[in-house]
Amino acid sequence: MTPRQLRLNLFVYPGGHHEAAWRYRGSAPERMLDAHYYQKIARRAESEKFDAVFLADGPALADNVRYASRFRLEPFTSLASLAAVTERIGLIATASTTYFEPYNLARLFASLDHLSGGRAGWNIVTTGAPQAAGNFGLDAHPVHAERYDRAREFVEVVTKLWDSWEDEALVADPVSGLFADTDRVHPVEHHGRHFRVRGPLNIPRSPQGRPVYVQAGSSEDGRAFAARHAEAIFTAHQTLASGQEFYADVKRRSAAVGRDPGRLLVLPGISPFIGATEAEARALHDEFNELTQPEYSLQMLHRILGLRLTTAQLDGPVPRELIETGGERGNGSRFQVILDIIDREQPTVRQLLHRLAGARGHRVVVGTPEQVADQIQEWFENGAADGFNIMPPWLTGGFDVFAEQVVPLLRARGLFREEYEGRTLREHYGLPRPEAVRPVPTTAGHGAG
Amino acid sequence: MTPRQLRLNLFVYPGGHHEAAWRYRGSAPERMLDAHYYQKIARRAESEKFDAVFLADGPALADNVRYASRFRLEPFTSLASLAAVTERIGLIATASTTYFEPYNLARLFASLDHLSGGRAGWNIVTTGAPQAAGNFGLDAHPVHAERYDRAREFVEVVTKLWDSWEDEALVADPVSGLFADTDRVHPVEHHGRHFRVRGPLNIPRSPQGRPVYVQAGSSEDGRAFAARHAEAIFTAHQTLASGQEFYADVKRRSAAVGRDPGRLLVLPGISPFIGATEAEARALHDEFNELTQPEYSLQMLHRILGLRLTTAQLDGPVPRELIETGGERGNGSRFQVILDIIDREQPTVRQLLHRLAGARGHRVVVGTPEQVADQIQEWFENGAADGFNIMPPWLTGGFDVFAEQVVPLLRARGLFREEYEGRTLREHYGLPRPEAVRPVPTTAGHGAG
């Protein structure tokens, strides 16, 4: 029997994950709008037998785009483009339950799953950036709890839409003239607090039944949501202990709501700086840090922590006493990660900015290929991870180094596949294809939410 | 100087345009959810140097899917998939101004235009099918005039979003550290009757600036809208006289609002049944008619005309006196096309259903390759068309016949390109790349709408 295997996704951030990636000599900022650039990256990840490529998203322009590659192409179109030039690799799109209509989102994912032969995943987000509200006619970004309330009902609605065609409903029998057996296509008749959706979907059930449900928030609401709905979680942890706590907690929560914890994969982010020696890796990391622009990171710090600092304060301590830990902002999971760094490491402002520059709160590992592989193995074998979301500091080279030097070590240790065994993302992840749940019309509240 | 050239789009309807296409022996109904099927069709159209492939759409399931292939994959994902396997051909997506959010639609098109290197077109529709309303929480489908009012403002908003990045705004200079010159990225600050959108878009301006604006309604509202906004019009006409009237009318209207009428292309639909002899073509057409199912067409007749007839009435006259010509339904352009057929031809119900089975009101031409080419040339040279939307009765074979037998005749007559000269859809259509219009914040109404 094959031992438990790592699940590895490639997180594709235009230019790379480090905020200064686009300034690094190995980067190609002029290609960030070029389909062939992403196709090359996805094909490379597929040739390494990665489980999936993952695209983040948000429906607003980041303020600090002046200093870094803070935009991206839209994920559905990008992944459909990648689907056409790959055969096996999973395709995970981030899409917001706060700023999409359920019927439109359900169609986009059903199509992506058909077009890719069953490789779609949905990273379910409620959108953290408050400036999105102004792009959708809202006076204010809905508060955290309200966004999660809508998210729960949103997932319920789109699940009903994806299940509205029975698998056998598309008959297409030229002789009898029966194209779709409409007795097997069901309205959803959802009447909830946030949505009223009649259905059915206008696309037959897709190869995976539904996209793989992925979730990325680790707040209290986020954990509860993930325990109930997610099949994979992307999460940010700086220490093994934090990763273990989270892993045990969400597995326990999912068991508590009657789910098989084995069907909820925990995939922390990791951004590897790799060198032939540890000193070389550190030099590489330093080189990136020297390319950072404090104006960029100070804006990020303001957004996440609410601290408005100036470049004059870079070499002083982080004014911990000015950080308001309660309220809406304190609900964000990334807030807590950064607060922990401050409490644990007591960095100067500049040191904190450098800590965050690599992956905005995700874990940065700096070392030799063996050291990176050791870190991955340690988390994997000690109850902190079922796999990882690999976040190369820069693209495409930062991934090439990982692929060439770390992946072979993981294979030699029996931790990662040599070949794909399945064809769908569910198969790569070891997740079953869900049975269609026949909807029961709801008339109040959001039943299963 | 090259003489005036035909613009030819391939209308890709799953299985083909005839309602019974999926039952025809040359059809492949089992492939309607298969990306490779559409890729093969698009590549073939590109090898014939067609201007574009065109995908219809609507956010609801048609009632009569029991009898025919009345569903389709979602256009943005489908066309992004086709963009990846083609180089030149335009990609026109139908998308509804009634059921999309402007910011989401703007991002999808900007991405498609980037991913395709400037080949995106937007078929702007307000959605005719009333059952869509129930999928979006509305009590009723907005009436025609209301939908067009929203459409005008929608186009205004997304135009502002597409123009929000100046072409030079993306600097990406690693040395200075300036990624985006935010002085050249402008908020849109739109405050209208239907939408409030702050902007800017989170994607730099795309190769074409904006997708080509296409429009498909020919009602009074539709013509006024097209005259102001459209760069290409898809329209349904049964007779040369009707086509000429429409052509002259929309060109005149566009001139009246200060536009160059040469930058508004009129592209009627045409569905060709081709045989080596006229008799063979008629036999082919008869064969398709024999595969039709009256239950299907009677539902369509009810939807478009409001007539609820039974199969027992097939061989009697169309009860013209029961058709209510005023009101909301009478605003639909397809309504008028069908009413004209009834008045002109006095068909039995069955004859009318057969007339509509080929292309639901679009013109069906039955004849030899020469006869089909003659019809195209006649309309093109007599003020009824700048080109055509080719609607093969079945796919893929129905297009192969057109490509092999009619296209060479059009080329021999100097009417259609031998090779692409441009790379973008705008270049194929002979349309300029629009200058970005700097938005003036609106505080009431919808200024330019």
UniProtKB/TrEMBL annotation, chains A, B:
Domain Luciferase-like: 33-384
InterPro entries: Diverse_substr_monoxygenases, Luciferase-like_dom, Luciferase-like_sf, NTA_MOA
Keywords attached to this entry: Flavoprotein, FMN, Monooxygenase, Oxidoreductase
Coiled coil stretches, renumbered: none
CDD domains per record: Nitrilotriacetate_monoxgenase
Molecular function GO terms recorded: monooxygenase activity; oxidoreductase activity, acting on paired donors, with incorporation or reduction of molecular oxygen
Protein residues bound to FMN: 57, 94, 144, 148, 218-219
NCBIfam families for the chain: FMN_nitrolo
Family: Belongs to the NtaA/SnaA/DszA monooxygenase family.
Protein name per Swiss-Prot or TrEMBL: LLM class flavin-dependent oxidoreductase
